């Protein structure tokens, strides 16, 4: 990009980004902050945990947080991917680098969580430690109660969210870069009276990349909201049917036919149908449709994903059928449901 100095403020529309940042923090349960290449905050801190809020308000400890933000961003640049690490208080944080033409201009920082993995976390680097043990010991007495309130997540959940943030940043940079190029070329063309074509504006550029990035980011956001782990499904009393439940909950974006479910359970479709109705109290098709609507309500309540995207994420063939099905169960269209839920 040319025309003005490179900075994260000239790439991100910070007013709009802060609103999106707040929504992402609400859905993912992570605190999120955007910083420049020096580690200085350029947005407010979305969903900052009480522990980290207390640390950052302490003039003795704040410099350590800023150094962690700065070094975390630089480590992310070196690895060219989201960098997951431990801060100076041994809390999980993520740095997602924002790059333009190979130049690092800032990062989206997220985290303020503890790991839940009972087997122990992977080998993560503690990016900064202090030699002033006395200082930390004195501060800890005022902070330990807040520490217990930090949210707990699995490492896989953290990786999924970091990938989603990386896709969003890539999309924003791509859009900002191309907008800048279009503006420059139109400015030059205005003097000659010629109107350039898209191929002249953006040689080799295709709308496919930003659309794919948008779609993939939405997919990750939906997966995070609904819980992407295969183990978040229901259990049933009959172990014969359990593979069907496991698959249904692990593949929320599919419309799984009864025949495939029967194959997963190694029984015939007719026997699966009778057994399912006996154990669950309703037909498989009715149960699956009702479950899709439960997930649809979660996405409508907790995200700003378009109705068409929610339809696609839940395996409906077309938005019209999704809207019809939703209205059948909720007596309202998805748009009306979202509007009145958020009043």
From TrEMBL:
Protein name: Helix-turn-helix domain-containing protein
GO MF entries: DNA-binding transcription factor activity; sequence-specific DNA binding
Pfam families hit by this protein: HTH_18, PocR
Coiled coil: none
Keywords, ordered alphabetically: DNA-binding, Transcription, Transcription regulation
Phylogenetic placement of the source organism: Bacteria, Bacillati, Bacillota, Bacilli, Bacillales
Organism: Saccharibacillus brassicae
Ranges where the HTH araC/xylS-type domain occurs: 242-340
